What we know:
By secondary structure, the chain is mainly α. The protein has helices spanning 20-33, 42-46, 49-57, 60-66, 76-85, 92-102, 112-125, 129-139, 143-157, 167-178, 184-195, 205-215, 221-225, and strands spanning 165-166, 202-203.
Amino acid sequence: MGGVVGKSESPKRVCTPETKLESKMVGAMQKRATQGSAMKSFNSIILKFPKIDESLRNCQATFELFDEDSNGAIDQEEMKKCFHKLGISFTEEEISDFFNACDINEDMGIKFNEFIVLLCLVYLLKDDQTALHTKLKMALPNLEATFETLVDAFVFLDKNKDGYVSKSEMVEAINETASGERSSGRIAMKRFEEMDWDKNGMVNFKEFLFAFTSWVGIDEEEEGER
C-alpha cells in the first residue's frame, strides 16, 4: 500500500551535485539564469576571447604574489593567506572545498589556470558580495567585467536554466550560429567533450571555466615556459 520502502524516486536526470560547493554553484547559476544573458550567439562569446585572455593574464602577478615559494602552484596554506590578504573570510571546510574543487589534476597545488577558476568561483559564491567586489577590484581591476562575461556566456548556453549545460544545449547554441553548416554538430560535440571533464554528460560552471582557460590557451603557459 505504502509503496516500496527505501526505493527513492530518482529523476531522469542523473546529475546531482557532488559537493556542497557544487550545489551552491549550481544554485547561483540558476539564480543568474533568471536575469537572462546579454550574449546573442556562440560567436559573440568567441569574439570576446582575446579580451578575456588579456584580462585573465593580468592575474599572473597576483598569482605569483600568493605563490610564496615560487614553485608554480599555490598550496592550501598559501591559499589561506591569499584569502586573508584579499580580506575574504572562509571557514576551514570552505577553504578545503575550494581547494579540492579547483585542484583539477589533484597534484596538491593550484596552478595558474586553476587559480583563475578559484577566483571566479569565489566571486560567484561569496555572500558578502559588495565588500568582496570592492577588494577584488582593487587587487585585480577589470576582472569583475571578465567574470561577468563568463557567467553571461554560461547562462546563454544553459537554455533550460537548470545550472548545467547539456550536450543538446551546446549543439543548439552552436547550430544557431552556424545556421545549418554540416560541421556545426561536430564542433559542438568537440567543444562539449572539452568541457565535460568528469564525462557525466552535463557541464557545471566550474568545468566550463576550466575549458575556457584551455580555449584561450592559459593552461599551456607552463609547458611553453619549460
